[in-house]
Amino acid sequence: MDLHDKEIVPGEILPVVIIGNGPSGICLSYLLSGHTPYLSPEASHPNPLLHNKLQEQPHVSLLEQDLEYLCEGLEGRSSNPVAVLFDSLLLPDSDFGLDYTSPLAWRYEPERAIPHLVLGKGPPGGAWHAMEGSMLTLSLANWMELPGLKLKDWMRDKRRNVRNDRATPAEIASYYQHYVTQMSLEQNFACGTTVTSVTRQPGNQDGSPPCWRVKGLQRREGEELGDGSSSSSSVSEEVPFSLLAHNVVLATGTHDIPARLGVDGESLPFVCHSFWELEAAIARGELDQSSDPVLVVGAGLTAADAVLAAHHLNTPVYHAFRRSVTDPGLIFNQLPKLLYPEYHKVHQMMTQQQHRAEPPPPDRAQNLHQRSTPSTPPFLPPSSPSSSYPGYLSFPRHTVVEFRPDQKCILESDSGQRTVVQVSKVLVLIGAHPNLSFLADNGRLLGVKPKEPITCRRNPIEVDPFTNKVVAADGPGMYAMGPLVGENFVRFLKGGALAIASDLAKRRRKDEGRGDEDMTTDRLMDRWVDRQEHRTWNRNL
Q: What is this structure's pTM?
């Protein structure tokens, strides 16, 4: 869908613009398109408290019910109450390995649809299209699915059953892209778009209400240039667009900008900040068992993936991280061993093959760089004549002090002892920050801690827990969802979609009661879609 370089319909205001076309934006689009959850007449819920509440108004859609009342007394793995509620309704008692049927029945009610537009840089699915394609996802397959299309059924029709009840990122990305088509949501999606600013637009003297202005660029593939010979080439261009919207939803995710350590030498060419740079080095043949060790910094799942990838090549690995291996906050201590054997293996490596520092000479750092044959790695713990995982050494409770141009790195333990390691490459994999450059001060003012950058774990955007309205927004009608509000798992970000769709539906009923047509603009969207189709037809002539 092309947006072109002016408002979709000059002077008109769209009801909703969603920035981000990952699973958060897709799920919200599904709910805003008229797909409505009800309590199935013959269904029951294993939680008796929730079941009794649902039975009080069995014929009222979930979007119209009091979500705060339904959330009372529920507990789950998310800190967002509506996320726990919706997860409990979609996947009852799934944390216990049980396979209860969802008590929800979905009805398509187009009269409930709220016109909206979803903007995204790439195809529907967001960051899933950029993830490594062969490793398994952390979540179980059914936790990754969106309402109305079972992931296992889709995969069975496509290719095979889900291995180990988990899927690969490539499969998940394909599922999300197919979901948009299967649910007939394509007309709501404008891909290839980069939002450059979101600002509050004051009302005009002609009576136009205040709203949000969304500006950006859309990448469009141009016609072939030249005379039709083999020298002809296709070009793409970025065309500016400007939209007006009553409501803006921030759903960009948090994978745009890799987090940095902020130490000297971090910009040296051998220091990388993404898993893909490791893959590229492997593809170029730069790493093998004779290489100097790769230093992996971080103790999350991406860092573990890097350890596994390097270890698979028999490339030596140093692994430095701030936490203790027994820290309950370490993700590996929260994962069932049977479901995640590869990450359990990494945790074993981290635990069993720790660096045991010998007291260094005064005023000198210990230097681990020695040359040796690959069969007897030079960096095994001195106390271990043999090893279950040759070529790996962990540095728990260590931080990086400095990277040097000679490819030496200085690590420091929490007791202050320093160690120098010689490396071939460094992978700093300590998380990522969202790109909110389209907001004032990169969105910092919207965070729980307004002076710090927005991050999923330490400083999410502060929202109302039952509507997902942004607390510190410049005006009404700004929402946030997904990783931006602390939800990293697909199974829980669907709750944000429910909270927003419910609040928009309730606001529309109020507007209709006052005779306000702002939220019931199907005519506007019909004109807009017709206009887009007409433009496409003209270009194809």
A: 0.78
